[in-house]
Amino acid sequence: IDGRDSSTVRELAIEIGVLENTHGSALFTRGETQALVTTTLGSKRDAQLIEKLETNDRIEDHFMLHYNFPPYCVGETGRVMGVKRREVGHGRLARRGITACLPSIEDFPYSIRVVSEITESNGSSSMASVCGSSLALMDAGVPIKAPVAGIAMGLVKDDDRFTVLTDILGDEDHLGDMDFKVAGTSRGINALQMDIKIDGITEDIMSIALTQAKEARLNIIGQMNQVISEPNEASKNAPKTKVIKIPTDKIR
């Protein structure tokens, strides 16, 4: 719709450290989609406690990713109330894309909260959140295993003819036949989500979509690496944790 060919990613603008007093922050812009992402570090005791329904056991979740999609990001007015189903789903998808590359709690003894605030949206804000989260985590000094990026693929199909679209706009999502989100690193895929309006897709369509998604992902990661390729030192505002192991023979 905007004059690109079917495999071109929209222009990117990437910044880190945009908010001075946060532990880590990033502003990721792809075309008319923008995410302002912050990372906050806390102690292990700041983990989210999740109670199981079947038993009295509780799970400690040391990584939280919250995705906010306020009405103004699409030029609308409205109340900003509780989290909606869309925000929960997009947040869970972005979380799954990032979780695979996080360090273990033993290697990095902090609880981590990432908040992605969508400031404008025209297609694939969840994948912008993945890219922004990776940047904000590295800005906060979190030793992630590899940078993570995400892209949304689309499809226009007419009988046996089809075209797979890279980095779809909101209108291309609305008018097209598929919204296929792919998040991962340069080495592989971390998370997938597909919404389709047709009965199904062929193996050829899936193969082409994954191939174009990989090319787009590598392109985005390359531009992210030009801004930050290794985790920064931890922010001066972040809490510090030091682990001291006492030899057992010294304990009385």
TrEMBL record:
GO terms for molecular function: 3'-5'-RNA exonuclease activity; polyribonucleotide nucleotidyltransferase activity; RNA binding. InterPro entries: ExoRNase_PH_dom1, ExoRNase_PH_dom2, ExoRNase_PH_dom2_sf, PNPase, PNPase/RNase_PH_dom_sf, Ribosomal_Su5_D2-typ_SF. GO terms for cellular component: cytosol. The keyword RNA-binding applies. The keyword RNA-binding applies. One of its GO terms (biological process) is mRNA catabolic process. SUPFAM superfamilies: Ribonuclease PH domain 2-like (SSF55666), Ribosomal protein S5 domain 2-like (SSF54211). Keywords: RNA-binding. Residues 9-143, 147-216 form the Exoribonuclease phosphorolytic domain. Pfam families: RNase_PH (PF01138), RNase_PH_C (PF03725). This is Uncharacterized protein. It comes from marine metagenome.
